[in-house]
Amino acid sequence: MVGHWECSLTVGILIPYCKPTMDGHAVPGKVALGNLEGLSMTFARLLTSSMWVAPLLVLGSVAVAQEKAAPNPLDAITPVTDEMLKKPADGDWLMWRRTYDGWGFSPLAQIDKTNVKNLEVAWVWSLSNGATETTPIVHDGVLFVYNYGDKIQALNAKTGDLLWEYQRELPQELIDAGGNNLAKRNMAIYDDKLIAATSDAFIIALDVKTGQVAWEKQTADWQKGWRYTSGPFIAEGKIIQGMTGCGNAQPGGCFVTGNDPKTGEELWRVYTIARPDDPKGGDTWNGLPLESRMGGSAWISGTYDPDQKLVFQGVGQPYPWIAEMRGTLPVKDGKNNDALYTDSTMAIDPASGELKWYHQYLKDDTWDLDYVYERQLIDLPVAGVDKKMLVTTGKLGIIEAIDRTNGDFLWATETVPQNVVSAIDEKTGEKTINQDAVPHIGKTTVNCPADPGGRGWPATAYSPKTQALYLPLNEFCSNTTPQPLDPGQVYTGGGRATYDRVPVPNSDGNIGRIDAVKLTDQSQMWSHRQRSPVTSAVLPTAGGLVFAGSWDRWFRAFDDETGDVLWETRVNNAINSFPISYEVDGKQYIAVAVGNGSSAARSWATLTPELLNPDGGSALWVFAVSDEKKTAAN
């Protein structure tokens, strides 16, 4: 039997030689640096404190066996098909809001109301510092995450181990400018490719197993201000991608493209600003020529109805924000100033790019009150008749439902305090505007809310379990002051207005809200109110939970029926992203990214100056119920 070991380093090499002091047989093997049982204390200190790292050749059966390497999930990852996108596995998260209908709902129920109190950190992965607004994609045990500054990583979704990394070489001018333009909200996965939009206005495809570039296609010239902040999704075998950056005085505004996923070739382009010869909306710009029509950013990913084969894309506001500056006010005799297709839903055929129909929510927007956000496809009765609804909520916080077969108005209901719309016609949805809230050059106007909205880009979500819409909301108003152009000055970009954000009149000091609204009758189920702005999307699950995070770094799980807080933890930075849930080897996980820098979150945070966060510390947090606590609960 072996007594003890004597080890020494051979001169000129970094492999120690060890021999037993009693009879024994030499058996080669490896030992991890943190697992040194059986070696002399002198050698143990040498291994753990020296500046070199080397493989160890250990003799004798007393050495601890090397741990078997965990299997690489990339080895078994399968191509993503159209059928998978239509009906994803419960444990996968294959697109921005998980499913084509835009619900943002997880069918996983392992983590529920009874055991969520045992939720704890499974693993954490540091991300590139900056505005972190990402939605991870998870497929076959691999998690893909888009870091700030165009770094894409593949991680083992069970352990958090890095599998591969892609870093785009961006122009230094873009890197130096920083800001929200280097943040991305989502990616797409299709076949054996991970598809992303970049800060320098390319669409790229990466091999899911290696991270190597399969192809890349430039869509626009980033030096003219074109940008991507949202990512693509796949519909009918086409890459659907919306463009932003059209507030930089780009004539004709933004567009949506359809690309070939095999080559990246652009197949069609739909403009979000109506051309003068467009029969649907060409005459809605108060007589302005094309070069004076600006805006219409498609800066949030759309949704898709496979039955109708229609893509539903939200469109943002016109530029400059102030109507008097862009020339759509005052309205000229015999002219229309609706400014299509801004603040609209565009229903697009993904095969051809044909615009089938549109529905405009806010005509001639002069407040920066986008209606660009997620479109949710929900089938429920309206006045006793089953309807195929498309539900969306703009910055005004007004939930609006239209018929997704033709764009007809169905109903609307308000949430946060607002003074822009004084009335909504119950039959047509036509809005009556409060003229006192319309900004004018040379005046300061109070409007509630203004940018970044009573609800911003953090997404709402729908649960079929409760038939409720869950909304992240914030209450505030602003003193809006237009910044007029000097005589002879040419507009070169920007909103041309200053917003001094203030609490709503008679506020109790609470800014953030999470509401649950029953969509069968538009009644409020519950409303959670708090001091801190709510800055993340919401995630309802089949376990009866709703997850959400806020500026003050708290991540919480709410009871989906009552709004009671069932679990909470404080993370290291602001939560400005889209939480998801996934499953690996029969275990459910909750993942959420954190990181300061989001322009919307920083805007809301001016209302709570006492709540401070670090600039650094972007990370991906992943939570689960430990096996021990799961067993104990059972």
From TrEMBL:
Question: Any idea which GO molecular function terms this record carries?
Answer: oxidoreductase activity
InterPro entries under this entry?
Answer: PQQ_b-propeller_rpt (IPR018391), PQQ_rpt_dom (IPR002372), Quinoprotein_ADH-like_sf (IPR011047)
Keyword field? Oxidoreductase
Residues forming the Pyrrolo-quinoline quinone repeat domain are 93-418, 522-590
Superkingdom of origin: Bacteria
Which cofactor names does the annotation list? pyrroloquinoline quinone
**Keyword Chaperone in record:** no
Is Iron included in the keywords of this UniProt record?
no
SUPFAM superfamilies reported for this sequence = Quinoprotein alcohol dehydrogenase-like
Member of which family? Belongs to the bacterial PQQ dehydrogenase family.
Please identify the protein, giving its name as recorded: Pyrrolo-quinoline quinone repeat domain-containing protein
| Provenance organism | Paracoccus suum
